[in-house]
């Protein structure tokens, strides 16, 4: 039996993504981002993102089909992100996907965006190992998942209780006057600073939150980044009040160290305590050099095999939706039909 040709549609945030895969093989990953339109607001504006999806959908679809060298009628199935994400943005992708499914008569599969960040792993290195953990870090999410089965059993072990890590990068970059999106700017600047210059707080690491392996506290594998952001703001205020020059690189490096230290420490803890021996890193913040470095170090120290897909597959894209879609099709699952609605707060 030949592997299915699957078209994936992603529109949960500011990326309009169309991906086409055959089984585990990537044919195209075409992305149009409305990031430029959000820059002057310092964050994604939902209404603008929705309108941008509407503008970008057909051109992106055409380009993807062109790049993959396939015709719409050759596609075996359509997969679309149905949540979590921005309601209006999801709505555009889901409506477009339903229209395509009706027009082509092909089965439609509703896909969970978070699980798709994991499923994309098959496009880089083939079948995912059993006993897999996934650390997803982006502007919209920060989660550690246990993936027993990509197409069935996925469990949330921990997540942020307030800001996502990428959001913390963006907010701190704004405080430091580095522009938006702030992650890449802080990453770059941090290389010239001292990560030990300032000891910023690691959220939810007090014993009352952590507990012990035997008696876990309420937030053993969870993160919080809003206190860290406030600590950076206070620090900047103190320098300004004292009339001293801001050590921007040291603050960036120290902030980054606090984020990356607590993310990797808790992710590795969740893995070791749950017998997870393989970890996949995903989300836009996977581009961060220090996060890659420390995750690799700490995984190696605990005998965890780390997989990091290329960054074009880590940021939001349609190929990840197509990749998980093809796994779902191959599992023999029923299509989702045409009645499902987007779910902005869809759980894993
Ligand atoms: O996955 P993504 O493209 O979109 C979603 O948020 O879903 O992630 C974007 C986020 C932004 O917050 C951006 O600041 C952050 O990822 N980011 C980084 C780096 N590159 C992007 N954060 C830290 N270091 C980076 N090198
Ligand atoms: Zn995402």
UniProtKB/TrEMBL annotation:
Binds 1 Fe(2+) ion per subunit. Fe cation binds at residues 113, 117, 316. One of its GO terms (cellular component) is cytoplasm. GO terms for biological process: tRNA threonylcarbamoyladenosine modification. Residues 26-322 form the Gcp-like domain. Its cofactor is Fe(2+). Its main location: cytoplasm. The keyword rRNA processing does not apply. Substrate binds at residues 136-140, 170, 183, 187, 288. It catalyses: L-threonylcarbamoyladenylate + adenosine(37) in tRNA = N(6)-L-threonylcarbamoyladenosine(37) in tRNA + AMP + H(+). It is found in: Cytoplasm. Belongs to the KAE1 / TsaD family. This is tRNA N6-adenosine threonylcarbamoyltransferase. It comes from Arthrobacter jiangjiafuii. The lineage of its organism: Bacteria, Bacillati, Actinomycetota, Actinomycetes, Micrococcales.
